[in-house]
Amino acid sequence: MMSKKVIGIACFLIISLLGCREEFEPKISGSDSRILVVEGYLDTDGVSSLLSLSYTQSLQSDIQDFPKVLGATVYLEASSGERFYLSEAGGGDYRFEQDISEEDTFVLKIFLPEGESYSSRELKPLNSTDIIEVDYEKNEDGVEIFITTQGDENTDDFLWTYEETWAFKPPFPSNFKYDQELKDVVERTESEKYDLCYRSEANSALILQSSSNFEDQLVFRQPILQINHGDERLSERYSILITQKALAPDATEFWENLRENTDDLGTIFSPLPSQIQGNMVHDQNPEIPVIGQVGLGKVSQKRLFIDILEVYPWQPEVDDYFGCSLGADTVFVINYEAEFRFGNKVPTYPIYTVNGLVPIGYLYSEERCVDCTLRGSNVAPEFWED
Amino acid sequence: MTIDPMKQFYFVFLFLLMGTGVSFSQDIQEPRISGFFPGISFQRFMERVEEETPYHFYFKSEDIAELTVNLQADQSKLSDLLDAIFLKTDFHYSFGNEFSVFISKGEKLQTQLPEGFFRNVSRSESDLNGEVDEAFVRNNRFVIGELAPGQTKAKLSGVVRSLENGEPISGAIVFEKIDFTRSVSAPDGSYSIVLPIGKHTIYIQNLGGYIEQRLIDLRGDGELNMSIGESIYSLSEVVVNSGAINHISRPEMGVQTLSVNEMKKLPAVLGEVDVLKGILVLPGVNTVGEASVGFNVRGGAADQNLVLYENSTLFNPSHLFGFFSAINADAVESVELHKAGIPASYGGRLSSVLQVKPKFGRTDKIGGSGGIGLLTSRLSLEGPLGENTTFLVAGRSTYSDWVLDWLEDRADFNASRANFYDVNLNLRHQFGEKDVFEFTGYFSKDNFRFDPDTVYGYQNQNFAAKWTHYFNEQVEASFSGGRDSYDFEIIGEDNPLNSYQFGFGIDQTFAKVDIRQDYEDRHIFNYGIHLNHIQLDPGKIRPYGPESIVIADEVEREQALETSLFFSDEFEINDQWMVSGGLRYNLYNYLGPQTTFTYPDGSSFSEQDVNGEVSHESGKFIKTYHGPEFRFSARYSLNNQSSLKAGVNSMRQNIHLLSNTSVISPTDTWKLSDGFIRPQTGIQYALGYFRNMALNTLEFSAEVYYKTMRNLLDYRSGATIILNDDVEQDVLNTDGRAYGLELFLKKSSGRLTGSVSYTYARSLLRTNEAETKEKINDGDEYSSNFDQPHHAVLILNYEVSKRFNATFSGNYSTGRPITLPVSKFEYGGSERVYFTERNAQRVPDYLRLDLSINLEGNHKVKKLAHSSWSFGVYNLLGRANPYSIYFVPQGGALQGYKLSIFGTQIPFVTYNFRF
Q: Signal peptide location in the record (chain B) (predicted)?
């Protein structure tokens, strides 16, 4: 629904009007029930796609990794009875790489090693349309990234998710390091460089829209995200990969519930949370809950790069770098060992005498203000284009 | 009523003594006295009166040497003050020409009249066109009626009016102190009391006011109309509260009245006197959060309360999404909440009726009042318009965004703007003796912008007219009609291409005939008919601006006709038993035009069940529901101080607020009962014990109730409420029950007044067994959103002096139920939460303390305006009471948060004035 998102945003702002929020861990008399979670959107054109099987875990659990389901048998069964198996790819993932008919209907079957099995409701491949455009627009607060796409008689509802990657520099980029053995400051090698890094973040955002809300089913410049001035993401070079999936009507409801349960809760006018189900059913006992909405269709993706030159001026303000400054004193050669041995002070800028070729000392800064690898990787990802 | 020569005598007498004219509003020329006289000598009192007024006293110094004055006066007549001072003393006074006042001891000068003059059957002080010598009425024995052989008791009746403005006084108690026989005046001021034949001293007590007395010699049935002062407060008098007497003598229970004065003393958010928030101090009334004017009465939902401004229904009684109530306190006389024992003349909602009584203009002169607060200022003007008409106009408006700016500096948001205003206009016209015409009008408008692109707006528009005719002493009828409308709108301009305008609205036209009839002294019949035509525009969206490509969509309009016939009888069987019973028959017609889906019989209307579509013509009865509503209550007096009461009442509700949130939110829309959504019905049983203690200064009550409700609406997971053409597919038919115990203790007089209440209450829901779409919590019973078992409120008001009082209030309740996730899972690139049982957890308990201090200015009569300051602190402890708890993924992992509306102390200050 068109206005829903806007209402959501406005409601969030009401809270900022008078409300205040604090971190809080409520005591919940929880159940430890393990519920199967099935996630996957299988590509019908033979492009490799993954289905992942995992379990829920208690809310209080601090374990980072969710229990995965290994050794399950998974296949798609066409209405003719023909089976298309998925191969186990490790870590609870199952790979699907087959070209199947887009006219047929299918059922996804999952057999767990314990003997239980699950089936999806009837799946119909969705003939998704391609993304028309991904672009950005400068506005008062910064930059807004948007997508344009068009639905047709088969595809009306869309889900967009995105992953972001950006290059960044620390406040005091340096190419030097203190070598414990030489007891001297030396230049870093290519693999040791920490003056430019790349950081990637998956995002929990789920953006949903129905093309039937618009004339000609043209979803024109649907906002995906807003990056405000001062955000580090645009401080060097930024990349976003937007994934578009066409959704069946029942899938829209699942994703909408998931989104509401994630984004809209806790505000003054929040809706009551919804029970998440999806289109999977436990074969032996339909009362046993299972979470998951599997789909068949074509995933459409587009990547956008934004360079700082396009949005200049852009001054990053990063909380992690709050209070970074250069040390007031130069550390002279004689003091290298005493000052740099522990690694918390890092040589940053060399100081030369008027005609000297060898630095007489270094200005230094804290490690956190110099070493970008503390917050990212110094290796550019494969897709990166400069 | 017969006319006798005495009247003419009075007339001449008054004319000579007072030097004033004859009309009702002529007493402007009589000097009024205001001031605080705390135990000063009478000598000093007279000096002060002489300084401020043209009065001159004549007296013997030795007579008055020991006389002291202990009074607070506000625009009082000298005669009233002297009566109060001389009560129970041997002093008398009389007025001469040119404002001379003669004080005498032992014998009154000149004015005593022989008893033999009073032979008339009927007496009335105010027959003399209003101007009355108070000393005269107070010290003379009125002879009422004619002696008849064998008669031992006689009925005294009449009307109590205000001496100040001639308006009838409702709720004044007329009583005598030997057998404590008493009567309370009706809204039109009328009273009647049965006393033994003989001489009596009758006392008249106005709510919170001063006690007046009249001497009568009752010889037979007769009439005595009385005018009593409202503005003198006695500092030492034992105050009998009319509420206290009503408390034990009325048959109905669960009725509570708050006067605006009482509300004004309560601490309020940003100092706004809030007529709706005021009722939250009453037992059995609760709210789930601060940002909600919506209140819950005895386990009922917020939409089950009928909020009436006189006869007009307020569909959204709040400003600023619930931070303030929509009604300007200046235009309100009092607020009465019926939690049980709802009179048969009211209906249409399941839980309660909140009757806001409008204030009508004074009759004596043009005056006004106003206030300047942090967020709003208000102004009202009232007075006579010609001889028989009065008006009151009141307005309130936000006048600046500076509070929001101030908050903006302290909170992380921008571009928020909010403004609202409301206007009230009340007119009253008296046609002769027997007809009164009243008009009430209300208009309010709100606008908000929380981010630069989205504007919310809503407006209430209500007007109603009422004509009351007094056929005779036994029968009065009122004919009223009016129109109520409410409109809501959102304009989103985030992007010119996606700009939209969303709105919904409701219009209601009503007519009502309400007849009250006294029958053979012991019965009061109330009967009539109530017609209501509701038109609903459930929602529409339109492109906004020329570039927008949003497609217009509209949910089909709905209309319905409600017809209710009601009859009730209040019957005093004997001194112990009083019963009141009523029946209201409600007929509801859902009217075309309408296009609806059809479903097979016995289905619960899910999307898969649809088997067709049918169109109904305009005006066709698509669906009719009808049924009776019973109202019954009984009182049994245990003794003069205590009584037992019991009651049963059943209610029907044909209009539903669709709300998938726990509070009333702006996007909640209304829905009429239709072929699929049935009217909500409920029945409540209640039992109570009422006791007054310490000479009626302490009131105690204990009530228990049990209530069942059917056809309530809850929502399936992922329900869509706005712009949904087929809401029946998203709602779940739900049954509810609620029960509770309410304890209430109130002290209404003395320097320290206040109340303490404790409520234990539960409110539980269960998805109806026949519902197949989804069963919340597997069909088990679950807490409603406002199931808060323990709730306690303490109000203490300490009067340091007449000009300085402080109110402290404390509010505790169990945290509201909330649905919290029990487990988490990974989906869509992030951790997500998994919810299971609805409302199985609670937010932490709620505790809030408030303090307010009210300072009155001095009461010099020549001052242009009287002013007062009130200031204080809301949420004294600065406690961040959690409103909600939720989890948000942060960098892929879940983080829990609690949200509170007011996380800190909120100071306030308001300057009030009247003239």
A: none
**What's the domain range around A232?**
2-15+32-169+199-311
Q: Are residues A56 and A70 in the same domain?
A: yes
Give the gap in angstroms from C-alpha B667 to the nearest C-alpha of chain A.
9
Cβ–Cβ of B722/A223 closer than 8 Å?
no
Instruction: Give B472 or B536, the one with higher predicted confidence.
Output: B536
Of B407, B500, B661, the CB nearest to A17: B407
| Alpha carbons B751 and A306: distance in angstroms, whole number | 72
pTM score, two decimals?
Answer: 0.71
What residue type is assigned to position B472 of the chain? N
Burial label for B50, CB within 10 Å (0-12, 13-18, 19+), is middle
Residues of chain A with pLDDT under 70: 1-21, 28-32, 264-271
Residue A54 confidence (pLDDT): 93
CB < 8 Å to B833, chain A: 59, 261-262, 273
The neighbouring-strand residues paired with B737 are B708, B764
State residue B456's pLDDT score: 84
CA of B614 to nearest chain A CA: how many angstroms apart?
Answer: 24
| Domain final residue, candidates A290, A311, A332 | A311
Q: For residue B268, which phi and psi values (nearest 5 degrees)?
A: -135, 155
Residue A305 burial by Cβ neighbours in a 10 Å radius (0-12, 13-18, 19+): middle
DSSP state of B545: S
Look at residues B851, B757, B847, B758 and name the one whose alpha carbon lies nearest to residue B798.
B851
Residue B30 near residue B18 (C-beta atoms within 8 A): yes
Average of per-residue pLDDT across B838-843: 85
Contact criterion met (CB < 8 Å) for A291 and B833 = no
The predicted pLDDT at position B403 comes to 59
Beta bridge partners of B692: B699
- Cβ separation B412–A258 shorter than 8 A: no
Domains and CATH numbers, chain B: 31-112 (3.55.50.30), 114-240 (2.60.40.10), 255-914 (2.40.170.20)
- Look at B454 and A21 and tell me if their CB atoms are within 8 Å: no
- The pLDDT mean for chain B works out to 80
Q: Does B294 touch chain A (CB under 8 A)?
A: no
The reply to whether A253 touches chain B by the CB within 8 Å rule is yes
Cβ–Cβ of A9/B454 closer than 8 Å?
A: yes
* pLDDT tens digits, B166-197: 777 777 778 877 666 777 787 778 888 888 88
* A246 and A190 fall within a common domain: no
Cβ–Cβ gap B884/A266 under 8 Å: yes
Judge contact between B498 and B548, C-beta under 8 A.
yes
Tokens matching residue B793: 């409120």
**Which domain-ending residue is among A264, A282, A311?**
A311
Residue A82 lies in a domain: yes
**Do the chains contact at A3 and B502, CB–CB below 8 Å?**
yes
Residue B600: the pLDDT is: 86
Does residue A384 form part of some domain?
Answer: no
Residue A243 falls within a domain, yes or no? yes
A139 touches chain B (CB under 8 A): no
Dihedral pair phi/psi, residue B421, rounded to 5°? -150, 160
User: CB distance from A71 to chain B under 8 Å?
Assistant: no
Per residue, the 3-state secondary structure of B10-65, as one string, reads HHHHHHHHHCCCCCCCCHHHCCEEEEEEEEEEHHHHHHHHHHHCCCEEECCHHHHC
- Whether A258 contacts chain B with CB within 8 A: yes
Same domain, A140 and A281: yes
Size of interface A-B (CB pairs under 8 A): 246
> What's the rounded mean pLDDT across residues B68-90?
76
Q: Which candidate from B451, B497, B895 shows the least CB-CB separation from A13?
A: B451
What pLDDT was estimated at residue A37? 93
